[in-house]
Amino acid sequence: xxxxxxxVQKTLFSIVEAIPPLARLANRWAINRVVRRARFRPHxxxxxxxxxxxxxLTDRRWSAxxxxxxxxxxxxxxxxxxxLFERKAGTQRLCxxxxxxxxxxxxxxxxxxxxxxxxxLTPPGEDPAxxxxxxxxxxxxxxxxxxxxxxxxxxxxxxxSTDPDLxxxxxxxxxxxxxFAPFLYQANVIDPQFDTLDxxxxxxxxxxxxxxxxxxxxxxxxxxVPQTAMMNTLFLREHNRLAGLIARAHPHWDDDRVFETxxxxxxxxxxxxxVEDYINHISPLPFTLRADPKVAWRAPWNKPxxxxxxxxxxxRWHALIPDVMRWNGTDYPLAQxxxxxxxxxxxxxxxxxxxxxxxxxxELGPRNTAPALxxxxxxxxxxxxxxxxxxFSDYCWYMGQTRPERFxxxxxxxxVAAKLAGLYARPQDVDFHVGxxxxxxxxxxxxxxxxLLFVALDxxxxxxxxxxxxxxxxxxxxxxxxxxAAIGTTERLRDVxxxxxxxxxxxxxxxxxxxxxxxx
Length: 520
Hints:
This protein is mainly α. It has a single domain, classed as Orthogonal Bundle (Myeloperoxidase, subunit C). It contains 20 helices and eight strands. It has a two-stranded antiparallel ribbon with strand order 1-8. A hairpin with a 2-residue loop joins strand 6 (324-327) and strand 7. The relative contact order is 0.17.
C-alpha cells in the first residue's frame, strides 16, 4: 500500500471506511499486522538476569526485554556520540506534520508507564548501580500521573467530601474561574496531606517562586513542563466532571463507587485518545484506526503487560521540542519552561492547548536536539550500554526489517552517515538508541522507521490488553450511563477539552496535526 500515492490510498481507504463491517475488518487486520511483528508476551528475559529464571519471569520491578543482553566491545565513548544529536544554533529542522501538542501528549502518556527507577525511589537493600535496569512502573496505562502509582497516593489525592454532591472527586482548587489541582508546597515545604506522593523530579533545585506553583499530582514528572501539567489538569477536570454526573445519576452510591467508576471511565477515554488521536497522527496511512476492544478479546497477543527496556529508550523524543515556546503571547526559551507552571496558570487551560497546537514541533532525527536537552541524550546512551542492549541492526532484524549493510542504509544524510562511519567499525555495530534517531523520518509520519514500528507495536499491545477493555468488563455497568456516553463520544483530545473549558473550544485549532499540513 505504501507504494501507492497518498491520494490514491486516501480514496481507497475512504471506500473501506464508508462500509462499517469492512472498516471493522480492516481495523482488526491492521492492528494484528502491527502487533505480530514481534514475539508475544510473556518475554523470556528481563533486565534482572541475562538468562531465564523464576525471578526474572515474575519480578516486575525489573524491565522486560525483547532481545537478550549482548556484550559489545570497542564501542565509541557515549560523549563522542553527542555530535550525532546536537543541534547547531539556528539550524533546527521543523516537522512538516506535527504541532507541539504531539510531543506534549507523548510525554504525558509515557511518563505514566515508562518509569526507569530514579535514585530517590531505589528501595532499601537494592543495588543502586542497577537502578537503570529497574522500573517503578505499574506496567499499565492507568493514568498514574493523575491518580498516583500506589493506593496510598491515590487516597491522598481524593477529596472524600462529606457533601453528597461532591462524591468521588479528586482534590482541586479554583483559581479565578478555572479548576486546577491543589498546590503541593505550603511555605516552601510539601503539604503534609500529600506526603506519600513521589516528590517532583528536580524540585530541590527550584526557586521558592517556582516551587510554590507546583501541583499536587500523582506523577513525579507531571510538573516537568507546562505541557504535561496542562494534560494532567485536563483529565483532573474530566474526572471531577464525570464524578458529578455519576453521583447525580446514582444518589445511593457511596464515595468509593463514584470515584472508581469515574476513574474507570477516564482511563478508557485516555486509551481511546491514544489510539484514535495519537496513533492516527503517527500513522503514515490515511486510514482511521479505532480502539475496538473486541480486536484483542481472542487475540493470541493479549497478554499481561510488562514494559520493556527497549521501549523506555525509543521514547526519548527530545528533538521534537523547539528552542523557544510561546505561551500566552510571551516567548520562553526552552530552559525557562522546566518545572514552570506560570504560563499555564497565567493563560488558562484553553489558551495553553491553543498555544501548544499553534507551535510546530521539531523534526525527530539526528543533529536536531536542543543544547538544553543533550544531557538527557547522553543519559539515554548510558542506559543503552548499562542494559547491554543488542545493536540497532539486530533490532531491525527482530522487527522484520532489512539489516543495514552500509551507513547510508541508516541515514540518507551524507554527513550523518560519515559521522557514523567515523565512530563505528561497521553499520552492524551502531547502538540501538543511536540508530533509532539517525534513521530518516517516514513520509507522512513524524517518526523514523524503526521508532514508528516499535511505537505502533507497543501502543496496541500495551493499550488493548488493559483490564478495563476485557470482554467481561467493557460494558455499561462498569462505567455507568454517563461514563459509557462519555466513552462513546470521545475520539480526540479536543473532545475532552470541549467538555472542560467554559463555552468549549469553539473554532480554536487544537490538534497534533498542523492545520496547514499537506501529505508528502
